[in-house]
Amino acid sequence: MFEYPALSLVIPTWNRKKTLDKILFSLTKQNFKRRFEIIICDSNSRDGTKELIKKYISYPYFVIRHYNLENNISVKRNFGLKFAQSDNIIFIDDDCVPERSYLNKFYELLKNSDSNIVYCGLVKFPKKNLLQNFYKYRQSRHFLNTNNKNLDESRIVTMNMGIKRNLIQKKQEYFDKNLGILGKGLNGFEDYEFAFRLKKKQIKIVKCNCTVFHLDERNLKEHAKKFLIFGKYTIHKLEEINFEACKKNYYYKLKKNLIIKFLTRNTILPKIMIFLSKLIINLDEKSYKLGYFNFKFVLLSYYVYGLSIKNNAKQ
C-alpha cells in the first residue's frame, strides 16, 4: 500500500554540488523518523549534481526525486508546489543547511496548521563567517527571534519556508515566473511579490524557530552585483508585473526619492559613488572590520548605478 510522505522538501538548485551535499548529508542525520521526500529541482547542472544525488538514493527514510527544469527559481518552486506528494511542503535553498531538529519542528507546525498560515524560519550564518563585519551586517538583515510573530511581505523567507498544499490549491497563488529568471539578466522579488498576493488574501506570514545555516559566502563585491541588477532590471520588472506591490517596495520608494532621482539623471555622480565603493570593497578585503555604514553605502551605490544605466539607456 502506497504511503504518502509526511513532508515534501523542495530544493531548487543549479551547480551547487558542494553545498547540496552538505544539505543532503544533514537530512540523513535528522531526528525525524517518518518517511519524507526530497524534490530537487535542477537545470542540468554540470558539476556532478546528478552523480551526487545517486549517493543518497538508498537512504531508508526519504525518497529523492530529481528533475531538470527551466533555470527559473519561480518555475522550480511552483513545480514543487504542484507535484509534492505530501500536504506539508518545505522550501529550502541549495545553500541552507538545516539544524538536526529541523524536520521535526516543521512537521509539528504544519500537521496541525491553519491552512491560511505560511511559516518562515530563522536564517543564521556560520560562526566563522561572523568574524567578519560584512557577514554580521548581513546577519542583522534577518530576524533572529520569533517575537512579534507576524511578518510583512518584505520579510518573507522563501529560503526557509513551510506551507500547506491545500493553501495553494484553494488560493491558486504561485510564484510569478517572470520574476524568477536566473542567469546574466537575473531578476528577483518573486518572493516579495508572492507574499504580497498572499497577504492580500488574508494569509498570515508567521515566524517560526526552524533554523537553517546559510552557506552563502559571497563577499561584499559579489553581493553588490545583486544590487546593480536590482537597479538595472529587477525593480522595473516588478513595476511592470505588479505595480500595486511595487509601490510598497523599499527599492521603488528609493527609486522615487528626489535625491536618488537627481543622482540617476547625472552620468558622473553614480560613477564617483562606484569609484568610492570599490575603495571600500578593497579595504573590507584587507580588514573585515568596516562599519555597517560602509556596506550600506556600497549597496546603495550599486543600486543607484544600476538605475542610472537604465535611465540613460532610455534617453
The helix/strand order is EHEHEHEEHEHEHHEHHHHHH
Radius of gyration: 20 Å
**Which structural class is indicated by helix and strand composition?**
alpha/beta
Count of helical stretches: 13
Shape call: globular
CATH topology of the largest domain: the name is Spore Coat Polysaccharide Biosynthesis Protein SpsA, Chain A
- CATH domain class of the largest domain: Alpha Beta
Largest sheet: 8 strands, mixed
The total domain count is: 2
CA(first)-CA(last) distance: 66 Å
Strand order of the largest sheet: 3-2-1-4-7-6-8-5
Residue-averaged pLDDT: 93
Protein architecture, described:
- With 315 residues, this protein is of the alpha/beta class.
- The chain has 2 domains: 208 residues, Spore Coat Polysaccharide Biosynthesis Protein SpsA, Chain A, CATH 3.90.550; 94 residues, no CATH class.
- It has 13 helices and 8 strands.
- The chain has an 8-stranded mixed sheet.
- Helix 8 packs across helix 13 and helix 12 runs antiparallel to helix 13.
- The longest helix is centred in the C-terminal third of the chain and has 23 residues.
- It is globular and about 65 Å long.
- The termini are far apart.
- The model has no long low-confidence stretch (mean pLDDT 93).
Provide the descriptors you would attach to this structure in a database record.
single chain; 315 residues; alpha/beta; Spore Coat Polysaccharide Biosynthesis Protein SpsA, Chain A; 2 domains; eight-stranded mixed β-sheet; 13 helices; 17% strand
